[in-house]
Amino acid sequence: MAVTLRDVARASGVHVSTVSRALSTPHLVRAETRERVLAVAAELGYRPNHTARALTTGRTRNLGLIVADIANPFFPPLIKAAQSRARLHGYQVFLADTDENPRAEEELIRTLGQQVDGLVLVSPRLSNAVLSRTGGDLPVVLVNRRSRAHATVLMDVAHGATLAVEHLAALGHRRLAVATGPKGSWTGSQLRRAAERAAAARGLALSVLGPVPPTEDGGTAAAGDLLRTGATGVIAYNDLVAVGLIEGLAARGAGVPGDVSVVGVDDSATGRLSRPRLTTIAMPTTAAGHAAVDLLIQAIEPPDGEGGGTAGAAAGGAAETTLGTALIVRESTAPLEHPASRL
Amino acid sequence: MAVTLRDVARASGVHVSTVSRALSTPHLVRAETRERVLAVAAELGYRPNHTARALTTGRTRNLGLIVADIANPFFPPLIKAAQSRARLHGYQVFLADTDENPRAEEELIRTLGQQVDGLVLVSPRLSNAVLSRTGGDLPVVLVNRRSRAHATVLMDVAHGATLAVEHLAALGHRRLAVATGPKGSWTGSQLRRAAERAAAARGLALSVLGPVPPTEDGGTAAAGDLLRTGATGVIAYNDLVAVGLIEGLAARGAGVPGDVSVVGVDDSATGRLSRPRLTTIAMPTTAAGHAAVDLLIQAIEPPDGEGGGTAGAAAGGAAETTLGTALIVRESTAPLEHPASRL
DNA sequence: CTGAAAGCGCTAACAG
DNA sequence: CTGTTAGCGCTTTCAG
Description:
The structure is a homodimer.
Chain A: H1 5-12, H2 16-24, H3 31-44, H4 50-57, E1 62-67, H5 75-88, E2 92-97, H6 102-113, E3 118-122, H7 128-135, E4 140-143, E5 151-155, H8 157-170, E6 175-179, H9 186-201, E7 205-209, H10 216-229, E8 233-236, H11 239-251, E9 261-266, H12 269-273, E10 279-282, H13 285-300, E11 320-323, E12 326-328
Parallel strand pairs in A: 1-2, 1-3, 3-4, 4-5, 5-11, 6-7, 6-8, 8-9, 9-10
Antiparallel strand pairs in A: 10-12
Helix pairs in contact in A: 1-2, 1-3, 2-3, 5-13, 6-7, 8-9, 10-11
Chain A binds a DNA duplex (16 and 16 nucleotides) through helix 2 and helix 4.
């Protein structure tokens, strides 16, 4: 069996509680005693039992991070950022993947929720109503979802969408399309709305495609619909969809950017590696990972003189951070060719 | 506060232990009582406290999965497979990322190890010696690492490498190279050895490059070295390195597959999406994820009439499963052009 | 500064 | 079949 506090206590001739203090609150123990205890603990190879500690303190020093799909290149940078930031504060991150399934998401919030001090939900697919019901009283930070009940980190995809429409307009495109993502995606609706507004402001036509599954296959399957709209410029829900779209267009004899200009969202590794190189709206994923963890830890460890308020919610409502986006122009967008030269 | 067993007991007029039984071992409780208790529990919204349960039983129903780098497209399919398989058995998977850092790996094995019933280590970078010292008595399954101490799932990359050399030889290439991966990678050394053997058997020259960081940048940086060897065919440690190599070669004016043929390893999404489409050794990642979890759960829950043996180790040594690989020929390999036409 | 005692929420013998 | 009794390993009052 593993060595416990009692073993250390026995071996160093003090009481268990003294050992506990020497380990957890060293300043409450006389230097001499402390050093002896620590030495014995080290010698015996004592490792505190995480579960027991969690049971008494109610804290786990774990954070949960729930994402829709780890295979989606949008997530890894955010995950890594969250992990490194958490480690900095002495927290361990538990990652879980919902497979884009709201039911799995709900289940995970419950299961994971019990073993962590707080949860970061990235691009949740659950409705706000279900979210707040499911969360219990656990501190929760939402990424790319607005909610009054929880602290929130938003990426300003609307601004990116506006830039994309302007870019396409400047290239001479008059008929645009936007491929929206899965139901429940805040990013998707932001994207659509901003694109609609920007297109309307410039008198451009805008067709809405979707909901499209946020994968390459989803994009490929949507290529037919896209061509039917007659759009020559399209903004895809994310880079994966954009790449799939390009594939699907090629299969139908339409070239990118020759016949259709395609803009992705994310600036993911996939978009950088695919050919033609993808023009895309860069999302601040790393910054978001950092911000989300900072916010969460703030909620978990009240900054000091906090009243007895609800977890994380400051007086004026939950914190909300909005991070900027940018348009990265690469090779998948080009000036509209003369109508005559199409097909 | 959350509702506990005692609350349910009180409200249903039975003892705590009866409630516990009704929940955990229903067949030990009279139907009537059970139903009443269950009804009350449901009504009160009782949720068992995971931590407390773990403390008494010593089991968490959690599995740990440690990978080198979630951003590497090799891992996601394996992770997803492991997760779905685990869920099937009522286990939850905790995923952690070592960032290719052996120290972080060691730390994670310890931290994560305390909160799970078993660990799957995918492509560990730690030496076997350190691994077995660090693991404690926790059931551990290794993927792509051979060890007498632990159950193991291997991918037959050596076979794939042989096929790749044959393929390159058939295309007329006489000078080959292999880019090996990070130190401590079992896959990398298998790849190198098999390539050396296959090349020698056919009288082909083979240069060894590396260690190369297992990323796109690593590949790009290695392009110069590759050209210096004069090889016209190369097998890269993985798809990421292959893609980077292609990039780096292009920057130096060498075309793929015109001047150099490149073979990757993994058959990852990245390799499928990059252009030219990558010829690659397909790794059985999904199967490996399933197999690893199956093996692990077997070690955690002894199949019944198991003696009092060490965790997971059957009489004749630890289990070892080897999964097959295949060569997928796409566009990054082509017949050797006449020397005159090069450069 | 240190020891004693209580208890976190649950399971697991052991009686009845 | 159900109640009683002990803890799991740790932290945390409360005394002294």
